[in-house]
Specification:
Elements: E1 2-5, E2 8-14, E3 27-31, H1 43-51, E4 55-59, H2 78-86, H3 97-110, E5 116-121, H4 123-134, E6 139-145, H5 159-165, H6 173-187, H7 196-209, H8 213-225, H9 229-232, E7 239-245, H10 253-262, E8 267-271, H11 280-295
Helix pairs in contact: 1-11, 2-8, 3-4, 5-6, 6-7
């Protein structure tokens, strides 16, 4: 379902399915990561939250999936932007993570939701942090999964991961399939490998739904340019859970530990053998911790 939020078109999936929702039913807003669409959320996770009594809203971030694309802003030079960042020079992205956080807040506004539990994974965790900073009274609780504070000096992705991430974007869906399979083999959970056949089936759902690699580049630039978030995390008042895999090769564990240290009262859950993906067993552990976290939070 497409809605107008923060002045742009945002695609959402709402477990209420257009039915009148009870004002007392708690809402969970799920925000996906870099270049990923709302269909990337594991069905078992979504269903578990619904079964626990939550109204679950998923969204495609701007410039990806079925939400509004921003091709008129041009194709950014990620290499040049990264170099400027390393040199301490300012980088002006086509849009910011703060803009993307306002999209999420706009979704709540359009759906007339006063407050929600906000859950983000990877880049989505960064956006969720920005939501909690910008609109503390709207955020019942914050959950940041395999994400980062964005502070300088944190552990970086392994060289082979960076090489895979910075490869020339695939020019067609078939090439995109091969690219994502190769990438997820590198960043996936070593203790919970996903069979390639199953991996291809999951990836195919997203690629067939929407193929828009240049949007991922613009989102990546928004991440690189978001340099002030680490200091702002101290202002977060929402009850916070930080979840991170101990074997994450893309956003190493130190990033999650730093996030939890910076947010007052945040609780950190680390998962053995989990990388930068959401296979069934880590998802089971995440759902257990997440449900307890959400049910323990009241307006």
């Amino acid at each position: 379902m497409k809605i107008r939020a923060n002045g742009i078109d945002i695609e959402i999936e709402d477990s209420a399915n257009g039915k009148p929702a009870s004002a007392s039913q708690p809402v969970v807003l799920l925000i996906m990561g870099l270049g990923m669409q709302l269909v990337a959320w594991p069905p078992q996770m979504v269903q578990a939250l619904v079964d626990a009594g939550f109204r679950v809203i998923r969204m495609d971030n701007r410039d990806i999936g079925l939400s509004q694309h921003f091709d008129h802003l041009g194709k950014p030079s990620l290499l040049w932007a990264t170099l400027k960042f390393k040199l301490g020079l300012g980088t002006k992205p086509p849009y910011t993570l703060t803009d993307m956080a306002q999209d999420a807040i706009g979704v709540l506004d359009t759906l007339k939701i006063k407050y929600a539990h906000v859950v983000g994974v990877s880049m989505g965790g960064m956006i969720a942090q920005r939501v909690a900073i910008a609109a503390p009274k709207r955020v019942l609780s914050l959950t940041s999964i395999m994400s980062s504070s964005g502070a300088r000096g944190l552990p970086q992705a392994r060289p082979e991961v960076l090489r895979a991430m910075l490869k020339r974007p695939a020019r067609n869906p078939a090439a995109a399939m091969d690219h994502f399979v190769a990438l997820f083999k590198i960043i996936g959970s070593p203790a919970y490998p996903v069979p390639e056949t199953e991996m291809r089936e999951r990836i195919a759902i997203g690629v067939k739904r929407s193929f828009h690699p240049v949007g991922t580049l613009r989102q990546m630039l928004a991440i690189v340019a978001d340099t002030g978030r680490a200091e702002a995390l101290a202002s977060i008042t929402s009850r916070t859970l930080v979840i991170h895999g101990k074997a994450d090769p893309l956003v190493p564990l130190g990033n999650g530990e730093d996030t939890a240290r910076r947010i007052p009262g945040a609780r950190l859950l680390t998962i053995d053998g989990m990388g930068h993906d959401l296979p069934p067993e880590p998802v089971r552990q995440i759902v257990e911790a997440l449900t307890s976290h959400l049910l323990g939070t009241r307006p």
